[in-house]
Amino acid sequence: MVACPKCAGWIDVDEEDVDEGDTLSCDECGADLRVVGTDPLELESAEDLEEDEDEDDLLEDDEEEESDEEWK
Ligand SMILES: [Zn+2]
Predict the structure, then answer these.
(1) Whole-angstrom distance, CA of residue 7 vs CA of residue 34
(2) Structural domain that includes position 9
(3) Is residue 56 domain-resident?
(4) Which of 21, 31, 54, 57 could form a disulfide with 6 if both were Cys (CB 3.0 to 4.6 A apart)?
(5) Whole-prediction pTM value?
(6) Model pLDDT, residue 69
(7) Per the domain annotation, does 10 fall within a domain?
(8) Pairwise CA distance, residues 55 & 71, whole Å
(9) Tally of domains within the chain
(10) How far does CA 45 lie from the centroid of its chain?
């Protein structure tokens, strides 16, 4: 048994039946997982490897208009 890195659900897999680099899918969430280690058995999401995360830093101009000073 090994925990799914995606949903933390338990996946019924025999450590002796898998090799590093094998892919399997989680019964709980259906995520594609890759075996990255067998001692101990370790899985990572195969989807994360293909993910390209572009961080768009949206700089918003937040200029406040100065209110006119009131002179007494
Ligand atoms: Zn899962």
Answers:
(1) 15
(2) 2-49
(3) no
(4) 31
(5) 0.61
(6) 78
(7) yes
(8) 47
(9) 1
(10) 7
